[in-house]
Here is the input.
Amino acid sequence: MTSPPTNELYESLTELERARLGFVEEVRRAWATQVYPALRREFDATVPAPAAGSVTGALAHLRTLATYPWFAWLEREMQKLKWRQLLEMAQRHPDAVAAIDDPPGREEPGPGAEPPADLPSWYTSIDIHCQPGGLWWGDQAAVVYELGARILHLGANSSHELHRLFTARCFTDLPDGARIVDLGCGFGKSTVPFAERYPTAEVIGIDLSRPVLRLARHRARQRGVGIAYLPGDASDVALPSHSCDVVTGTMLLHELPAPVLERTLHESARLLKPGGQIRFLEFARTGDAFRDAVIVDHAIRNNEPFLPQLMELDVVGMLERAGLTGARWTPFDERGDGPRPEGFPHRDEWHFPWAVLAAERAGGPDRHDKEAA
Here is the structure.
């Protein structure tokens, strides 16, 4: 089993500070395993037939239920409390942030500063995931974001198991020297598994946030893997056409406005070699109106305004119009074997509707596709 990656901030925390984070994590666990099932039971017992058949109807009924205010308040307030505590802890432990020495001695503008002119307003105008100031303003934001991601998954992804499963199960066998591009790579949790699994590959991570890229480089050095992390826009990548064997991204598409999302998919298609493959690990409609309504509501409370549109857009058609073949969604079970063509797994507790958006460029050698295995 791969050991959990180091987080200098967590290693610096006092016992009391860790207990405070543990409180947030345990409240979130109770929210997911107790409050959510109670909301589901109340919904199933009271929903009129017309409302049960549509996301809009389910959402309207959901918001009338007695359990709903508790469910909604806990989700939003625990998210805000998590970030507030982490940011305060980062301010109390500046040496943990200073450990990211790539390069040393930079000025940190702070969460209230004006964003750089080269970043799009849709990215800088939102406190994404409710994190104060977003991800662009400094190394403190990057370190806080990395540690906050552990709490989001309730410890289940502490060694990036989700990303390792995706890497192992959702790609055809790659040739030696393959070029893999990870769009919206963040601090590298989705990128490092490719470098470790394919040691001869050229692995490139691209993100808008320079601070998270500095953290990603720091983590890559710690793990002894060679990855090129480049600042850039996923919808306008500075690489030649037909130069990549894999274009991938994890939890990226739902963060993009519709025009940017479509440009990103067309740009991904432009980058692919013949025989190349696109795989995006994302969230998708499940066909269960209650679950889909809860995800739409989650997007509102979690400051993810573009997530609901991903559920509505014909992204499969976008990939087909970009000249790719075999475009499809496949449900993904992060606690099982990954791709699950038979449908989304059933669980009583709250969990994300993971799915893989996939397509290929025609041509190239035949390879074994693990999705079909």
